[in-house]
Specification:
The chain is an alpha+beta fold. The protein is about 30% helix and about 40% strand. Strands 6-5-4-3-2-1-11-10-9-8-7 form an 11-stranded antiparallel sheet.
């Protein structure tokens, strides 16, 4: 009787130690949080980048492209949404933002200043957020993931020619509760190169960090914007 009692005490103790050790892999500094902190620090040095995203929530199909050059305070944004249940509601946008000026691509192929410009979309604003270690709405919310998410190490893979490690990210955020994301962080530079969000059925790829970006925009538009803002 005595031996059986101590046997079950030891079994319960072993199970308790295993549970604590499992939880510690998520909670202690130096695990996933350490790697994501390296990413947050690396993002502080980013001055140019490109984001390409697709999302298929429900019957919709969304495509977005962001090109950001903080050195010139220049941002190019394209967005297209289609709904298979209502094809007539499809929309598209093509915008260039230079400092506080916006130019829209019209249906006839021309570019013009809108009557009511969209406020808050400037390259400088996004890069200021990154430099301060804050989340931007364009790149993965690394700061929030460090604070709130459970981070699990995944496999290595290649995204757009860059070797990265995929991390499984679980946190609150989806309409029905938990959100399950993946983020692939560069093995060499720690920068994010891919992110998926399950409930949005979305995938975003990130590229051209600190590389010169050739904008698919007429030079006359850029010259006009630069003249208005005093940029070179």
């Amino acid at each position: 009787m005595g031996n059986r009692y101590w046997f079950w005490v030891l079994v319960r103790l072993a199970v308790g130690v295993a549970i604590v050790a499992w939880a510690a892999t998520y909670l202690r500094p130096g695990g996933g949080e350490k790697e994501f902190q390296k990413t947050l620090d690396a993002l502080k040095q980013v001055h140019t980048f490109r984001v390409a995203s697709t999302a298929t929530p429900g019957t919709q199909h969304n495509e977005m492209l962001w090109e950001v050059d903080c050195n010139r305070d220049l941002l190019h944004y394209q967005w297209q949404v289609m709904d298979s249940s209502r094809p007539e509601t499809g929309m598209a946008r093509d915008e260039v933002h230079v400092a506080n000026l916006e130019f829209d691509h019209e249906n006839d192929g021309s570019w013009s200043k809108p009557r009511y410009a969209m406020r808050g979309r400037s390259a400088k604003r996004y890069c200021d957020d990154l430099a301060q270690g804050a989340d931007s709405s364009l790149l993965p919310p690394i700061a929030t993931m460090i604070k709130r998410a459970i981070l699990q190490k995944g496999d290595k893979k290649t995204v757009n020619g860059v070797r990265c490690r995929e991390w499984l990210v679980t946190m609150k955020g989806a309409p029905n509760g938990l959100e399950h994301d993946t983020v692939c962080l560069g093995l060499q530079d720690h920068l994010p190169y891919e992110m998926t969000v399950d409930w949005e059925h979305s995938r975003s790829s990130f590229s051209d960090y600190n590389s010169p970006i050739q904008f698919d925009v007429p030079e006359s538009v850029l010259q006009s914007a630069n003249a208005s803002t005093g940029s070179n």
